[in-house]
Structures are given as C-alpha cells and as structure tokens.
Amino acid sequence: MKQSVQVSILGQQFNLKSDAPPEQVHRVARFVEDQISQVTSSGRAVDSLQAALLALLNVSAAHLGGEPASDSSEAEKQRLGQLIEKIETALG
Questions:
Q1: Does residue 36 contact residue 9 with C-beta atoms inside 8 Å?
Q2: What is the pLDDT of residues 25-36, one digit of tens each?
Q3: For the packed helices 71-91 and 48-65, what is the interaxial angle rounded to 10 degrees?
Q4: What is the pTM of this model?
Q5: What pLDDT is recorded for position 66?
Q6: Going by C-beta distance under 8 Å and a sequence separation of 6 or more, which residues neighbour residue 78?
C-alpha cells in the first residue's frame, strides 16, 4: 500500500507516495541531493533545474555504462554523450 513520505531536496519539501519503506525513500532523496550537490559544487550549473538535469544525465550515463553492450545501448550511450556535451557547451 502506498504511503506518503515527506523528503527535502535542496531545501524544498516534497510529499512522495511510494510502496517502498520510508527509509528507502529517504535514502533515494539523499542520493538525489548528493548527485545534484556534486554538480553544483563543480560550478557547471547556474540554477537548480540545470543542476538537476546534469545530475540526471550523470546518473543515466553511469547506469547505461553498466549495461551489457548491444547495438541499441551503444547508440543510447553515444546520444547521451552528445546531449551532455551540448548542455555543458550551453552552460559555458
């Protein structure tokens, strides 16, 4: 049964509904905040949306890098790399 769990990410409160235990939801929220903090501490992001997107791209790249190689996953990795380059170029 889904339960509501309140978490804080970057000082903003979110009420999340999940079947997972509250401890796991909090652990995921901490992971997300840590990933965003890594991006903001590097100076690559200007605002919280950009930081969140770059953090998502970093996590996605790490996840896709762990998959067995196949034609489709290689194409996804290449496309993801191109998107990361475009975002970093746009951010200066």
A1: yes
A2: 999 999 999 999
A3: 150
A4: 0.65
A5: 60
A6: none
